[in-house]
Structures are given as C-alpha cells and as structure tokens.
What we know:
The complex is a heterodimer of chains A (277) and B (249). Chain A has helices at residues 7-38, 59-90, 96-109, 113-127, 134-158, 162-170, 175-204, 207-210, 230-240, 244-276. With 277 residues, chain A is mainly α. In chain A, helix 2 (59-90) runs parallel beside helix 5, helix 5 (134-158) packs across helix 7 and helix 6 runs antiparallel to helix 7. Chain B has a single domain (2-244), classed as Rossmann fold (3-Layer(aba) Sandwich). Chain B starts with a strand and ends in a 5-residue tail after the last helix.
Amino acid sequence: MKPIKKPLGHFLALITKAAAATTFLVMAFLILYILINGLPHLTPSLFEFKYTTKNVSMFPALVSTIIMTALSLIIAVPLGAFAGIYLVEYAKKGNRTVKVVRVTAEALSGIPSIVYGLFGMMFFVTYLKWGNSILAGAFTLSIMVLPLIMRTTEEALKSVPDSYREGSFGLGAGRLHTIFKVVLPSAVPGILAGVILSIGRIIGETAALIYTAGTVTEMPQNVFSSARTLSVHMWALTGESLHKNESYAAGVVLLILVVGINSFSAFIAKKFIKEGK
Amino acid sequence: MNKFSISQLYLYYDNFCALTDINIDIEDKNITAFIGPSGCGKSTFLKTLNRMNDLVDGCKVTGEVLLDGTNIYKDVDTNLLRKRVGMVFQKPNPFPMSVYDNIAYGPRAHGVKSKAMLDEIVEKSLQSAAIWDELKDRLRKPALALSGGQQQRICIARAVAVSPEVLLMDEPTSALDPISTSKIEDLVLELKEKYTIIIVTHNMQQAARVSDKTAFFLLGELIEYGNTNDIFSMPTHKKTEGYISGRFG
C-alpha cells in the first residue's frame, strides 16, 4: 500500500526544496557572474610589482591583504583563544567578571565595522600617532574579530567531554597539562572554524580599513606604511568607475584567496581530527 | 593495617548535605565495596578520597580523611594525592590518542621523559591490566577504536601507570557486557595483590564476588560496614537486609 501524503506535508517538502534550490542558484549565479566578468580581464599586467594608473596592478593590494590578515590574526587569535580558555577552564561558574566579559563580547560583535573604523582612526591613527598604516588597520580589525574568536573558542572547549578532564585530573595531571594535552587538541577544529570566519571578515572588510590603513596603492615598506587591501582596492576602483573590469578581476582573486585559505584550514582541521581518532 | 581512616566526614553541595557523619577505616591491600541505591552518596564519598569533588562547584567537606595518617584535606598537593590515589570511571574515558599515549599520559604529566622508561611503563601497565597480549601490536592505534571492555582495561592500565597505592573504581563495569565484566572482575582480584582497591557497584553479586569488606550507604549515611561474607549472610541492620534481598533500592 502506498502511504498517503498529506497536503501540508507536500507543501512543506516543496518549500524546503525550493529554499535549498534558491540558495544554491543565487550562490552559483554570483560566483559565475564574477568569474565571467573577471576572468577575461585577469591579465599579467594586473600583477606587476608597481602600481601605475596604466596597469592598475593589484599586486601591492594582494600583498597588503596577506600582511593585514596575518598581522590581525597574530594579535587576535592568541588573545581571543586564551580569553576563551580562561572563561571555560579557569573562571568559576557564575563569576561576575565572566558575565561582564561575555556581555561585552556580545555587544562588540554586533557593532557595525564602520564604528570600529572610526575608533581606530581616533585612537590608533590620531592618538597613538601611527598614521594611516597597516598596523593601525590590523589592530582595528583584530579588535573587530576578537569576540568572534573568543566565542568560538568557548563553544569548542565546552563541547570537549568533561570525562577527558576528569580522566586527566584523576591521574594527578595539573590544570595546564590537562588543557594543553587533552582539551585543546580536541577543540582545535572548533577554534579553527572561528579563525576561518575571522579570516573571511578581515579579507572582506573595507569600511574599517579606509579610515585606518588608508587607500594608498603602493607596495607597503613596513607595518607603518599606509596600504589598501584587495577589498579596499575593489571599492576604490569601482568608485573611480574607470576600472570596472579590473575590479571584477580583483574579485576573482579574492574569491580564489578565500577558497584557498578555507580549504587549507579545513585540511589542518582534518589532520587534527585524524590524529585524535 | 588501615590505608584510609575517615572520621566525622560531612559533605555539602551548597546547602544540601550529601554525606552525614561518615566514620570508616579502609584496610590496605584489600578490596572494599561500596553498595547502596542510586543517590545514596557512595560515588560522592569515593570522590572525596582523591578530592575529585574539588572540581564540583559549591562542594564543601568537613571532617577528617587520613591517608596513611595524613589529612588529605590539609596541606596536600592534590596532583600528588591523585597520583597516589588513582581512579577508574564509570564510563570508559580513554583520551582521543593512541593506546601508547594514553598509558604514557600520566607518567609524562609527572615528568617522565625517557623513551625507554615510558616503553617499560606502558608494557608493564598493559600487562597488569591483562590486555598486553591483545594490544601489543596495536599500541599506535587510537584507543577510541577499541571495544568498551578493552577501553575500560586501558583506563585501568592508565591509572596503574602512575604506580598509585590506591585504586578507586566508580562502577567500572556498569557500561560493559557480561564477558567484559567478568574479565574486569578477574583483573580486580589480581590487582588486589599490589593495590588497595575501593569499588563502587550497583551489582550486589559483584560486591559479593570480589570484595573483602562491604559498606552499605543509604541517603548519605553509612548504615553498615563489615566483612563481605557477614554482610551478605547475616546483616545486622534491617535496612541492609532489605536492600540486599532486593526489597528496595
């Protein structure tokens, strides 16, 4: 006997399928659109070492993006991860400070990036006299992604079974040993997921950087040089409206960069999981 | 000789009194079983013996717990205490690493670095947990891929690896099948030669089979304590008799 399908069940199944299909189509369209518009203009001259108004090279911006991302992560990951470790492993439950830190982190993660940009401009650029620089940009961005890394670290640590901790303490291992040898290795994939999200936000950020790192097209000399990342580069090119094609080409490179970094992180996470099992 | 000597022990979770006026002496190189219905405090009491209760928020202990004459709630390094008083948990909880690393974990945590020494400890510990022959070719395999019974014996080997004096076992067979259970019971009887063993169990037959002494707990109180044979053949207390004969619990 064939099961009788109720009309409501039919309808709901249809809606879920339609939603999944729409999401996929939108994504596919977006990526194809960028590739079709960008790939033909991805010429070698776009990767010349020096930017001129003629070649509109994105190479300095590509280098700046990588430096900016690395620097922001170097600042934000240890801070965020250790803050998360403190909150989960050390702080007593119901502690006042913990509540304050959590509420603050939640509030911070809801603030629009332009506000971070304004703060960065007033504090790092003006007050600390760093000027428009990669350093000011990186510090601003690291404050921006700090709550994200802290929260994902917290969640990752919370998902490590307490029985691991008990087992370790039961053998007379200290807290530090327990955290670094048993808890953290199990939590690394979760923490990496947070880092990947942060990389996405850093690479995609424009508003906060225009005010802090500037829009200079030159190859950065050091961390105090002003520079533009690829996203800012795209924004600037589109704004000038003379270089739409080059802007699309930069979009393609951004896309490849993000996909590359994500698969690399996924690879590392997988390695950790394999070793654990 | 007494390994543990406990007097006037009270334990509170916030305002709830989980253990009331416990007085008990536990003999060296002997197997002592704690029995009683769920929530009677036997596991809680077990955890006061190596201060695992310290990890529970709002837990407070008063009274005296003497280990070889020293009060473990005064001036004792909990890490060293837990090295002397090892623990095996209800659910097998090997770490997500290889068999070898699981066993070597404790010694490494206490500063053993030499590869030769670790190799020796791992072999000896696995042998005393009667699992060396099964696993000697699979030391590099992840411990989590083993069966539940094997995992529990890994956990026993892991506890033995730091050469403790006492082994606390919190219902070590409740998550295992009958065959694994009987293997663990045989193992416990063998380990008695070297270690003082305290075992919490829900299984009355198990207590009768393996233990020399039995303590019966009810609602946070120690009702009766004596030789296992006496407790099971002629309990002096009505409540003990009721529990053993299966009238409640």
